[in-house]
Design brief:
The chain is mainly alpha-helical. The protein has two domains: 1-136, no CATH class; 142-243, no CATH class. It has helices spanning 2-5, 21-40, 42-49, 52-72, 74-86, 91-98, 106-129, 131-136, 145-149, 155-158, 160-174, 178-187, 191-206, 232-240. The radius of gyration is 19 Å and the shape is globular. Residues 82-86, 91-99 and 210-216 have low confidence and may be disordered.
């Protein structure tokens, strides 16, 4: 499974090489399959994650896809934001932007963002089942994996359909992991996680039907399906104690 996921090997580990949509679709579907297997059979994943070679592959795999997303999709988002703020209407500038060699079309950006979301889900699952996986989030040159996650665009911190994907992974990866928590604190306010946990606990206790979430949002991303509800209060106290 991991060999199938590491399709980028044939591209010299370079995020500068643009992959075809067909290859991206294959990577997305295999990653979805891995997440589904993990959700259904956690014991097999725990055994797999105990292998040192698996942790090494996982580190390179996560790093590659995060870097790839930041290379090809993130500039599009920041460029759109800058254009909106400046009110830029100049056709020549728009044409120059569209001819940017680092640009991808909307279809490709959509696939890559789906890969990003599956990847965030994978990180959360693997951190839940392996302390060793938590440690790889702070390895390597800065920005490390954990820093890349909290450097995602602002919508991942203010819009439910995005932070419902990211926040559970941040909670799982830093809960009872002081070293990761220090990295998080240096770059991020844990108030986001505390407010999110409090909201989830309130919703759970009052059995609120979360109709405010976008109807296209997948249940599998939600905290209740990724992190045991019995640990929510302890997690809330853990993050509260560092403020």
């Amino acid at each position: 499974m991991m060999d199938s996921l590491l399709l980028y090997k044939g591209y010299g580990h370079s995020v500068n090489t643009k992959l075809s949509n067909k290859m991206l679709e294959i990577s997305l579907n295999v990653l979805k399959t891995l997440n589904n297997i993990t959700a259904l059979n956690s014991e097999s994943i725990k055994t797999l994650l105990n292998m040192e070679i698996m942790q090494n592959q996982l580190f390179h795999f996560i790093s590659f896809w995060l870097d790839y997303w930041f290379m090809w999709v993130y500039p599009m988002l920041t460029e759109e934001k800058n254009l909106e703020e400046s009110g830029e209407e100049d056709g020549d500038n728009i044409n120059n932007s569209n001819s940017n060699k680092k640009a991808v079309d909307a279809s490709t950006a959509s696939i890559l963002t789906k890969i990003l979301h599956e990847l965030i889900l994978t990180i959360g699952y693997f951190c839940l089942y392996s302390k060793e996986t938590k440690s790889i989030l702070r390895l390597g040159q800065r920005p490390v994996i954990l820093q890349k996650l909290i450097n995602l665009p602002i919508q991942y911190f203010i819009h439910p359909q995005y932070y419902e994907i990211l926040f559970p992974t941040l909670i799982i990866s830093c809960y009872n992991e002081p070293n990761n928590l220090r990295v998080l604190q240096d770059n991020f306010s844990v108030d986001y996680l505390l407010n999110y946990l409090e909201e989830e606990m309130n919703n759970s206790s009052s059995n609120i039907n979360e109709t405010h979430i976008c109807s296209c949002f997948e249940e599998r991303y939600k905290l209740k399906n990724r992190f045991q509800t019995s640990q929510w209060k302890d997690a809330f106290n853990y993050f509260s104690n560092i403020i």
